[in-house]
Specification:
It is a single chain. The chain contains 1 helix and 12 strands, in the order E-H-E-E-E-E-E-E-E-E-E-E-E. By secondary structure, it is mainly β. The protein has one domain: Jelly Rolls (Sandwich). The strands form 3 sheets. It has a 6-stranded antiparallel sheet with strand order 1-10-5-12-3-2, with helices on one face. The two termini are 21 Å apart. 30% of the residues are buried.
Amino acid sequence: MIVAPLSEFGTYLNLHPLFERVEQALITLDFSKPGEKIYIDGENLIAIPSFNKARSAGEAPLESHDKYIDIQICLQGEETMGWRERQTCSAIKEPYNSDNDITFYSDHPTCFITLKPNQFAIFFPSDCHAPLIGEGFIKKVVFKVKLAM
């Protein structure tokens, strides 16, 4: 997991060939239509803007992904996310769904981070995360970056 201000995103461009496209998309794309997937490079790079009511930590299950890296960027509000190392999760709540590339767990996070507007978190397949914890509404965009291209 990586957490940083959006102004430092360029520091991480060398972690994946598509991260540079993410940086360009942040400058050029409109994220005002929540729930509408934006295909930037087919299934290799997708942006999903959202505007959701926050939930309590107890309502936010840990999740993990096998095929994609998540780059979650807070645009408005404050979003707390739970985190736990995937290899320590043992209680599967919902088994892997290959169509949505997601597994849900009943395990609890071992720590929490809070993103303010213009901050981001990068979650790799080795990270479990529980998003959308907080109060009020959270506007964000999630970039799904395919591991193997």
